[in-house]
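Box 4.2: Ligand-aware structure prediction
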Amino acid sequence: MAKYNVLFVLGGPGAGKGTQCDYIVRDYDFVHLSAGDLLREERQRPGSQYGEEIEGHIRSGTIVPVQITCSLLQRAMENSGRKNFLIDGFPRNKDNLEGWNKAMEEVADVKRVLFFDCDEKVCVDRCLNRGKTSGRSDDNEESLKKRIHTYNTSTMPIIEHYRKLNLVSELHAEQTPDEVFGDVKKVLDDLTL
Ligand code: C5P
Ligand code: MG
């Protein structure tokens, strides 16, 4: 069977990962899988044995063990019956990266990493604004400080890892969503899957 094609979508909280993924699935043949969304769903699932553990990590902006996150991703990929995936908000740290490589290297090709680079202050303002209506337990000032810390200390090294492999496309995420998408399209149109 042919391997899955994967684009990882990374960037700080509020950088616009989800927004851009929505635009991409509208115009291209990709399935959008948000690791954060999958974890939030699993947290709500009646009978889940991971609910409390996930909520603890989400509130404190730390990263859920990869066994949980990667199996949610894997299941969603299998169930979709599709081949091309945008995996948003993953891998967020070394544990995520190693777990992915171990479980998925044989079945999935990481074709590119879309890195939405955005000023920290802009990110915080966007999340606080989103917090007014998102109902998310982590779109508040206290959780955001921790999420940004995790991003700087744990996620940036992952982006650097992929940069060394020449897989990173850097997008200027402070622009308007339409402007960012204009840049995203140039990257996707150059991609051969
Ligand atoms: O990407 P998003 O902002 O939705 O992630 C929300 C939270 O979900 C993160 O701060 C983290 O606690 C958790 N998460 C995780 N591992 C991932 C993605 C998200 O633990 N790979
Ligand atoms: Mg998101």
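In the box above, the bound molecule is magnesium ion. The mean pLDDT is 97.
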